[in-house]
Specification:
By secondary structure, this protein is of the alpha+beta class. The protein has a domain of 187 residues: Jelly Rolls. Helices cover 45% and strands 17% of the residues. It contains 12 helices and 12 strands. It has a 6-stranded antiparallel β-sheet. A 4-stranded antiparallel β-sheet has the order 3-10-6-7, with no helix packed on it. Helix 3 packs antiparallel against helix 4, helix 6 packs across helix 7 and helix 7 crosses helix 8. The longest helix is centred in the last third of the chain and has 19 residues.
Length: 319
């Protein structure tokens, strides 16, 4: 068993290595599949890679280690694991093990709600759903059968003519295995009317669309069609943050992006993202990123010899 897993990990790493030609995220000939490659440890949030996972996805590290910070929780994963993210989330991510000789290599498989619903038409997959809120992000153990399916999907890049027919089948197989696994409810809950998560998503979307505006928790609870205590509890269970913490993370990461790429002063950016006090903005920015805004800008804009690339800002294809 160990030899089989080791062989498949090496095969997957070799495939990703061969189909990536530079550092950073890269698309592939399979629309739902993307890769990333890093040849040095890398910390990113809102700058050279953005700060959101805004499509449901499954992530696999073929080689190296990665951390994702989600609220106050840290998820570490590598080749023995996979990470599943089921909704729009603000995150901070870090490449921990990477070098020119042994690059950090990973892949991402996007999926849709309709793909989950199609699988859930199978009565066998409905049995274990408990209808409780779960984290929107989880790390689980990657077993041999799922790894084999991932390798078969990625191998299709060497046989482009087979992609239209086989890629949807292999992706469906991978999603099936996630649904059968320890965090299958993470996917079930985003499409089930029985789950409070589907209503929490409406409140999350409202915060994402209006993060610069003030809100009352009562208003968000109304959007989610819940009582305030129930809403607060389910929101924190799902996002690992309170609504205010969630909004703050969105504000600060958007502020960092604007400071880097839009050449505006700190006070103007603080106001744009919803802060009325520059002192409070500076304090909270420093707490999140480890440096006050101006010092952080000098560091990230290349004064330390590492200039960021605005062309890469869209989302994080591979945390």
């Amino acid at each position: 068993m160990f030899d089989q897993v080791n062989h498949l990990h090496k095969q997957l790493a070799g495939l990703v290595d061969r189909h990536t030609d530079r550092d950073g995220p890269q698309s592939t000939g399979i629309p739902s599949l993307s890769f990333s490659r890093y040849t040095a440890p890398h910390y990113f949030t809102g700058t050279d890679a953005p700060y959101r996972i805004n499509k449901p996805s499954i992530y696999f590290v073929a080689q190296g280690l990665k951390d994702v910070i989600f609220g106050e929780e840290r998820f570490r994963y590598g080749p023995p694991n996979y990470l599943v993210a089921s909704m729009d989330l603000p995150i901070i991510a870090e490449v921990l093990e990477a070098s020119a000789e042994v690059p950090n290599l990973s892949c991402r498989i996007e999926f849709t709600h309709s793909q989950i619903l199609e699988l859930l038409n199978d009565d066998e997959l409905k049995v274990n759903f408990r209808g409780k809120s779960k984290r929107g992000m989880n790390v689980a153990k990657l077993d041999l059968s799922m790894l084999d399916a991932v390798v078969r999907l990625v191998s299709l890049l060497d046989k482009p003519a087979d992609i239209p027919v086989l890629a949807p089948l292999f992706t469906k197989e991978i999603l099936y295995k996630v649904l059968q696994g320890e965090h299958g409810d993470t996917l079930r809950q985003i499409v089930s009317d029985e789950s409070p998560t589907i209503h929490i998503q409406n409140a999350i979307q409202h915060i994402v669309d209006h993060f610069q505006d003030s809100f009352q928790v009562e208003d968000l609870a109304d959007i989610a069609k819940m009582s305030v205590p129930s809403f607060y509890r389910h929101f924190k269970e799902t996002t690992a943050m309170s609504p205010i913490q969630f909004q703050k993370q969105l504000r600060l990461q958007e502020a960092r992006r604007q400071l880097i790429f839009e050449a505006v002063d700190v006070a103007k950016v603080a106001f744009r993202v919803g802060y009325e006090s520059l002192t409070q903005f500076t304090r909270e920015y420093s707490r999140m990123f480890g440096f006050p805004p101006r010092k952080d800008m000098k560091r990230l804009k290349g004064y330390d010899g590492q200039r960021v690339d605005a062309a890469e800002v869209s989302e994080i294809p591979n945390p």
